[in-house]
Predict the structure.
Amino acid sequence: MKDARISHLRARRIWDSRGRPTLEAQVELSDGSIGLGQAPAGASTGRLEAVELRDGDRDIDHGGFDIQNALRQCEDLLRPRLLGQRVETQAVIDQHLIDADDDPNKSRIGANTTIAISIACAKAAAISQGLPLYEHLASSSLKTDEKAGQPKRWQLPLPQIQIFGGGAHAGKRIDIQDLMITCPAASSVAEALSWTASVYRAAGEIMRKRRSSFGVADEGGWWPDFKRNEDALDCLVESIEEAGLRPGEQVWIALDIAATQWFSKGTYQLALESRELKAADIIDMLSEWVERYPIVSIEDPLAEDDDDGFVTFTKALGHRLQVVGDDFLVTNAQRIRKAAAMGAANAVLLKPNQRGTLTETYHAWLAAQELGYEGIVSARSGETEDQSIVHLAIGWRVGQLKVGSFSRGERMVKWNELLRLEDQLGDRAYFAGRNALAPFRSR
Ligand code: 2PG
Ligand code: MG
């Protein structure tokens, strides 16, 4: 690589898919390469996520969501530290960001500030080297990890795609947050997305025929209008069948319960059905669903602090189901190690802004691999046109990718990028398909 160093760093306010302010970082190198990085934002965030810096005062601009403070951190604190630095090794540039805050959770400078810069640096470095981002990410992480050898063939992740969006993304209209499908039996990304399009359309038709509301939730899934949570699951199975596909053979269900959102004063509250449940009741209810529906993956079945519940659930169902920790593991290598020691969960959601740098996200993925956990790179409910998570999944060889539903531009740019890369890579890549999911590998 040429001796390219950061010559300009600028952060600006842009707007995310919920119309809220977010931060875009622009990094320019001495050879003229420019990288842009944009911070996504969650709605159902884990207590232990790295801190998103917002101005916080509801009486001032944009309901407290503005990011003037984060912009100042970039200008006053990070810019002087980063100017003149080289970017070809991501771990080195990210260490500067990590060192700028005494708090590993980045409460001073904000993980939204650092993730935007971290991504912008990776993109600028890729451009400077004339490499696609996924290839730069693979080779840049190689230097810190000998296991990550440059793959002979790239792996394209299996998508998890939302059909109905509930919970915090749909005014709690139903309790389950994400009702998704995954198509491990498809032969390619193109086929998986084509099946998904048919299911998404069929679900929309069913909602229209029932004269249910047919707007969309935050991530583009149909706005749910059901009396019981199970009605949504029944409707999802019906949509798969209406699309001419076989549930449990071609298309499977993946759920994000986001149970932290249900937890209040020591119990789990299902608002839709006016029920109050204990952890054991939730486990019974989900076990029943797993018997009745073709469910292959459940994310956050219990609240983020319910270690015992997670362990019991994983013991009961972990052999036949992917048990994903999102709020529970917060993309944190330490939390993953602790969970593995307890026997809680068997897969981790990887959200770069939950930690604040690409390198820390990668370390979470390395810890997960060592411990035999699956990985799913994930977008947030508040997104931008940034496509870098698609490249992360490919470059780091993560088996699955979750970016919300099959509508709205901020989602479709990512699915279309994955399709584009499948087409461009041809024989140099293969679709992860069934191999991405442990329950299918052991069958
Ligand atoms: C999640 C994500 C995406 P949010 O919980 O997995 O669905 O939601 O970004 O609001 O945390
Ligand atoms: Mg989640």
Summary: The CA atoms of residues 228 and 274 lie 10 Å apart. The longest strand covers residues 6-15.
